[in-house]
Design a protein that fits this description.
Blueprint (H helix, E strand, L loop, with lengths): L13 H92 L1 H14 L11 H60 L23 H107 L11 H61 L50
Helix pairs in contact: 1-3, 1-4, 2-3, 2-5, 3-4, 4-5
């Protein structure tokens, strides 16, 4: 007979089954309620975080825009400052070059002045005198040396100021480059969005990098660079004005001294010309006097020879009459007359000899004076030639050096030539060397 098999295990009752169903339903209701609460809280959190994220992004976009505007304003300020400092550097470099050119231009007047002083050292004897020309030439050398020192100082100051300007420009340029890089970075950050392809998580992005600065410090740095550049540009402007004033003053002083020196030189040439004319007149009169004196001496000698012959005749007569015989040897009127004639002739001869000696002494004095006149005339002629060469050499100060081509290369590499007429307003001075004085020379 078959039997019913029973599975092993626990057997539940119907109430247990109903209880289990109620428990499952209750747990489901409770879990759904908890899930609903979580869902509501998640929605609220999502809404809150979305709003907060949008506002944070909006605020950061605004901050980035404001920062970009602030950096861009400083960049534009630095652009203008860089343009100004570049213009100032160019202007100062041109003024420095002008000062150096003016300094170099002083070499020619200095060489001419030294050449004139060297030439005038060749004067001889009494003509080697300390005259106004020498004083003006020495003063001219001092004026040129002073001008060269001042111009050299200005050129040195301009060089130092250029270095300071370059240093200030370097700081401005570095600040400008940094702001350009910052602008590029901030604009790239402003353009980023969730759809950008190059966004990613970074390691510790909130760290503070080394060398970070505060906004006030950043503002002060740019302001300090700008103020320093402006201060250097102001100093450069003042230096340019002072340098240009120095160039003008040194040129005016040198021109005034050149006019004074040439005035003294022309006056000295005029005095020498007059002295030469006077010596020529004295030489001519002395030669005429020597000629007349030699003629008078010749006549005195002829008269003396005639008187000696007359005295011989008288002596012979007296001696011959000594041989009259006996009582004929009488001291008659003839004897007394011949004796008086002899005494008279001897006195005349003595007077003629004395006058002849005086005339010869006077002739010797005239010859010595003539030699003195001729010697002094040669000194004056030499001085006149030297001063004329000096005046001719100084023409290089009026004519550009490349256009001054002397015809003769002598001691001072110049030649005597007619001087150019004075400029309008220039003092009329003495006539040039070689021109004859009219009306002032002794007739």
């Amino acid at each position: 007979m078959a039997t019913l098999s029973v599975k092993p295990g626990q057997q539940f009752t119907v109430p247990d089954w109903h209880t289990n169903s109620h428990l499952i339903s209750a747990d489901a209701e409770r879990q759904r309620s908890a899930s609903h609460l979580v869902r509501q809280e998640a929605r609220a959190l999502r809404n809150e975080t979305n709003n907060q994220a949008k506002w944070d992004e909006h605020d950061n976009q605004t901050r980035l825009t404001e920062r970009i505007g602030s950096v861009n304003r400083w960049k534009e300020t630095l652009d203008k400052c860089l343009a100004d400092i570049d213009a100032e550097i160019d202007a100062l470099a041109k003024v420095k070059e002008a000062a150096e050119c003016a300094l170099q231009a002083k070499n020619l007047p200095l060489d001419v002045s030294i050449e004139c002083l060297t030439l005038r050292e060749s004067r001889r004897a009494i003509d080697l005198v300390r005259d106004p020309v020498g004083e003006e030439l020495h003063k001219e050398v001092k004026v040129i040396d002073k001008a060269k020192r001042e111009l050299q100082q200005r050129a040195h100051e301009a060089f130092e100021q250029l270095c300071l300007l370059q240093e200030a420009r370097q700081q401005l340029s570095c600040d400008h480059r940094c702001k350009m890089e910052a602008l590029e970075i901030d604009r790239m950050c402003l353009s980023l969005s969730v759809n950008s392809p190059n966004i990613s998580f970074k390691v510790n992005p909130t760290r503070v990098p080394d060398g970070s600065t505060a906004p006030d410090e950043w503002e002060r740095n740019s302001q300090c660079n700008k103020e320093r550049a402006e201060a250097e540009m102001k100093a450069s402007t003042e230096l340019r004005e002072a340098t240009l004033l120095t160039i003008a003053q040194t040129n005016n002083e040198l021109e005034a001294q050149r006019v004074a020196t040439e005035f003294a030189l022309r006056k000295r040439i005029r005095d020498l010309d007059r002295a030469c004319d006077e010596l020529k007149w004295q030489e001519q009169n002395t030669l005429e006097e020597i000629t007349e004196m030699e003629e008078d001496i010749r006549r005195l000698e002829e008269d003396l020879r005639r008187k000696m012959q007359d005295l011989k005749v008288a002596h012979t007569r007296l001696e011959t009459r000594m041989y009259r015989p006996n009582m004929e040897l009488c001291r008659d009127q003839v004897q007394y007359g011949l004796t008086d004639e002899v005494h008279q002739l001897e006195g005349t001869i003595r007077a003629l000899k004395q006058k002849l000696a005086e005339s010869q002494d006077a002739l010797d004095v005239l010859y010595r004076q003539l030699y003195r006149i001729q010697t002094d005339s040669s000194y004056k002629a030499n001085s006149l030639l030297l001063d004329s060469k000096c005046l001719d050499s100084r023409r290089k100060l009026m004519v550009p050096a490349e256009k001054f081509v002397p015809e003769l290369d002598t001691f001072n590499r110049t030649t005597n030539r007619a001087l150019s007429p004075p400029k309008s307003g220039q003092l009329e001075l003495a006539p040039c060397a070689g021109e004859k004085a009219t009306g002032d020379s002794v007739p």
